[in-house]
Design a protein that fits this description.
0% strand, elongated, mainly alpha, 137 residues
């Protein structure tokens, strides 16, 4: 029972963080008129929210894996016939979510924080052009 609560907590944390970033924080940051201030605000938001997003994903993934072991014991030999198709879709979606999260957290997020700290040159116009291309696709 406690494992289910942690699983729901992890999923709620991940989805809530992603929702608030995409629909609340990102549009608010993009309204800033100064590109430098926009980049600094975006880097700060990404640096703060990536931790909670990845924590939620990892908690949901690990508690799901623990629960999966219990289900295998419970169903015995009929486990794959009963849940195989459904879990195949769930694992595929989980893999896709982890790939997107990794790209966002360690790709763009790391790049923004490095730009703000001066480790790499800050070319916000190019980054915004990429973002517009992704939005149109």
């Amino acid at each position: 029972m406690i494992l289910n609560a942690f699983h729901l907590f992890g999923a709620a944390l991940a989805f809530g963080t992603a929702f608030s970033f995409v629909f609340i924080l990102y549009p608010g940051v993009m309204r800033l008129p100064d590109p430098t201030a926009r980049l600094q605000a975006l880097a700060g938001v990404v640096k703060f929210y990536n931790q909670f997003y990845l924590l939620g994903l990892c908690v949901a993934f690990m508690t799901g894996a623990f629960r999966l072991t219990d289900l295998k014991i419970l169903f015995g030999g009929g486990y794959y016939e009963a849940l195989g198709g459904l879990l195949l879709w769930k694992f595929g979606l989980t893999m896709l979510i982890f790939l997107v999260a990794g790209m966002q957290c360690f790709g763009q997020g790391l790049k923004f924080t490095r730009m703000v700290s001066g480790v790499i040159p800050a070319d916000l116009a190019t980054q915004e052009r990429y973002a517009r291309k992704i939005r149109r696709a």
